[in-house]
Amino acid sequence: MDSAHDRQAVSKVLIALVVVVVVALAAVAGVSMMSKSSSSTSSTSTNTGSQTTHASTQATSAGTSFAGLNITKFYVDIQGTSFVPPSVNVTTIGTNQTHYLGSPNDLFTVTIQLVYNTCTGSSCPSVINMVSVFQPGFVVQEVDGGLGPPVSITGTGTGTQESANFGVTIQAPPTAYTGIMTIELAVG
Questions:
Q1: Under DSSP, is residue 145 helix (H, G, I), strand (E, B) or coil?
Q2: pTM of whole model > 0.85?
Q3: What is the pLDDT of residues 132-156, one digit of tens each?
Q4: Which of 19, 53, 79, 156 has its C-alpha lying 20 to 30 A from 65's C-alpha?
């Protein structure tokens, strides 16, 4: 083999390699651009007895990304056995808002209202023993103005109805977050 033929073969291999690299970079850039321009949000909630399960998917659309704290919905997951589910399970922040926009490290308080309408015997819990947040990085700082847990679930004087209405102060993580928040309550 002569050196001109070898140089031509090496040149063809180098050109093919450059083409492969350029195509790969273009594909990566295209996927990156597609992920920045897509948008969807969905969440589901299923109540099965004393457990509530939540699933959520989030994507951010181009030009609307939020670099702070964006809690899109609050859920309460009541963890206990052998209890009827509450008739009312509402979580709000501020003036009856169900979402929160803020900054990383924010300290905010949500209000939780639980009402059980059909309590007979020991079918309803009487106390909330533990309060936590499912999403990593969020920390419960205070429950019921520093009075709990435990938080009593008390009768309302109507016979079979019991309720609890209390605040939970939460510290946000130091990083940006967009999505749902699940507050877990262990009841007994």
A1: helix
A2: no
A3: 999 999 999 999 888 878 899 888 6
A4: 53
The Cα 164–Cα 22 span in angstroms is 62
H/E stretch holding 14 reads helix 3-37
Q: How far apart are CA 67 and CA 23, in angstroms?
A: 32
Instruction: Considering only the C-alpha atoms of the chain, give the largest distance between any 2 of them, rounded to a whole number of Å.
Output: 102
What is the separation of C-alpha 55 from the centre of its chain, rounded to a whole number of angstroms?
Answer: 9
Nearest alpha carbon to residue 163 among 153, 171, 173 = 153
Under a CB-based contact definition with an 8 Å cutoff, are residues 104 and 174 in contact? yes
Which amino acid is present at 152? S
User: How would you classify the pairing of strands 151-152 and 88-93?
Assistant: unpaired
